[in-house]
Amino acid sequence: MTKALSGRQAQAARNDEVILAAARAVFIADPGAPISAVAERAGVGISALYRRYASKEELLRRLCSDGLARYIEESEKTLADNREPWLAFGAFLHSLVDADTNSLTQRLAGTFTPTPDLWRDAARAAELNQAIYARTKEYLRPGIVVEDFGVILEQITSIKLGDEARTNQLRHRYLTLMLEAMHRPGERPGGGSELPGPPPSSDELTDRWRA
Amino acid sequence: MTKALSGRQAQAARNDEVILAAARAVFIADPGAPISAVAERAGVGISALYRRYASKEELLRRLCSDGLARYIEESEKTLADNREPWLAFGAFLHSLVDADTNSLTQRLAGTFTPTPDLWRDAARAAELNQAIYARTKEYLRPGIVVEDFGVILEQITSIKLGDEARTNQLRHRYLTLMLEAMHRPGERPGGGSELPGPPPSSDELTDRWRA
DNA sequence: GTTGGAACAGAACATTTCGTTCCGTTTGAG
DNA sequence: CTCAAACGGAACGAAATGTTCTGTTCCAAC
């Protein structure tokens, strides 16, 4: 289909990626989708899936792991970004919306049992997140905590309207709004009222990986 | 159990409300929940459900209808609110978060076929929504359209963390943030950057009632 | 006290969904 | 030509779930 890497092994190599891409698309659209939907979308039979992954769980773990890796990658890229911190922070969140890492990590959590590797990656991600928070803190509105990031991203990525492109567009729209709300207000008088209730805690967030 | 309205008919009358309350709680927590979960939560048998509703769909329609009614009620209350429009608007959205009307209307849509009555109520709700928008427009940040309300509420109510009380608390937290972002910025220099992409349209929203 | 029927609990049933296995076929390398 | 990797998709079995059905309870009218 794509190129002339002749041979059955070439097709297999191509299928590796085709299947992963299909799985990403399908499970992002519907985390509870059946595995047959992945095969259909990839244009392969079911056995092509089971040749690569021993079970549905294993496929989901792979997707989650890839998502986490992507998240970590974007985080490191952000920490290496020498532009103004607030600008870099905004670009960071927008890139996470584009990559839709939340749908691959948080939303898939609970549908499978995490491996130690996953826990390690998650810890690493939290670490980087904290570093970004520390660097951005002085620009953030007082009262915003690092745990807010995840919850806000989750809200944003809960939006689903129209096709994929339109959904993405709208997510950026509301992220833009949210980013302004997260920014430390200037000396304007009315801005920055007290946020009600305690902020989300780290424990509350990680608890969902067990449910 | 509760009071001394003796007789089997009294129990039946009480069950009417118990069942509805249970159904609300169950389907808000999980729109795809089995009907047996409702019976369990209500502490009744399954036949107590089927005595009142001919099918699961009918129960869902009832919940949706009640949710819409509640939405309309809050809208009218808001239009009759003589306080400063922005204050009334904020109270409006907060009350909708408390009532969780979105989970009963939007999120249940698509799981059943709407009746003409439902369409009428939905049209009425949209009308009132428009009236509230008109009254609040001058306080809103330019670029915000009436269709934003629904999408924003949907984001907010997508939050689910901890028990019901905690979830509600966090929803109000992020609604507070969002409300500030929706407010027309003062004369501050940096505020109010352009929102990317076209806003959600009315058609996009109603299309989901058919899917 | 008797009894008819409304109301109910929950087992039983039929259907659907879905993960997984299995069998027969294709295909390309040696 | 041959063999096995790779594959397509039907088949299978388990689980979930909407609905129906059976037997039981309990109030109210006579």
UniProtKB/TrEMBL annotation, chains A, B:
Residues 13-71 form the HTH tetR-type domain. Keywords: DNA-binding, Transcription, Transcription regulation. It holds the Pfam family TetR_N. GO terms for molecular function: DNA-binding transcription factor activity; transcription cis-regulatory region binding. The keyword DNA-binding applies. Residues 183-211 are annotated as: Disordered. Residues 34-53 bind DNA. This is TetR family transcriptional regulator. It comes from Kribbella caucasensis. The lineage of its organism: Bacteria, Bacillati, Actinomycetota, Actinomycetes, Propionibacteriales.
